[in-house]
Write a structure and sequence with these properties.
Blueprint (H helix, E strand, L loop, with lengths): L3 E5 L2 E7 L3 H4 L6 E7 L3 H10 L3 E9 L3 E7 L5 E6 L14 E4 L1
Length: about 100
């Protein structure tokens, strides 16, 4: 997968990639999605399930960045929980990263 990083003033602030078949086959449309920085993707996934959320993707390792999980809430909202990513270099966008899935 090609994962293109977006930068602002030389700092990573977002990314783009082509949606894999695994996502499109589930009917997931192209979308913008933000990551939420968490201490543990595994614990956050367990907590989301215990509160009635749906785990869309079990926690997994993300390259050399950390661990991530995808979940949706009971209202259908989706988000990605990412543990281990250092967002401190993104200035005013600290702890926020946006991804276009197309």
């Amino acid at each position: 997968m090609v994962y293109t990083m977006l930068q602002l003033d030389g700092k990573d602030v977002g990314a783009l990639f082509k949606m894999p078949e695994e996502m499109t086959s589930q009917g997931i449309p192209p979308n913008w999605l933000s990551y939420v920085s968490v201490k543990s993707a595994d614990e956050t996934a367990d907590k989301a399930k215990s509160l009635g959320g749906t785990l869309m993707k079990e926690p997994f390792d993300v390259m050399d960045v950390g661990r991530m999980s995808y979940n949706s809430g009971s209202d259908g909202s989706c988000l990605r929980n990412l543990a281990g990513w250092d967002a401190s270099g993104s200035g005013n966008l600290q702890r926020s990263q946006f991804v276009l899935l197309e």
